[in-house]
Amino acid sequence: MTIKGTPQFGWIRGQFAAGSADLNFNRRQQTVTGESFGDQVSISTNAQGSAVTGQAHSQSVDLKQQWSPQLVKLDGWANGARYQMTIDYDRHQATGNAAGQPIHLNFDLQQGFVKGQSGGDGVDLKLSNEGQLTGQMGGQRVQAEMVNLDLGHLLSHWYLVTR
Question: Where are the domains of the chain?
Answer without folding.
Answer: 9-160
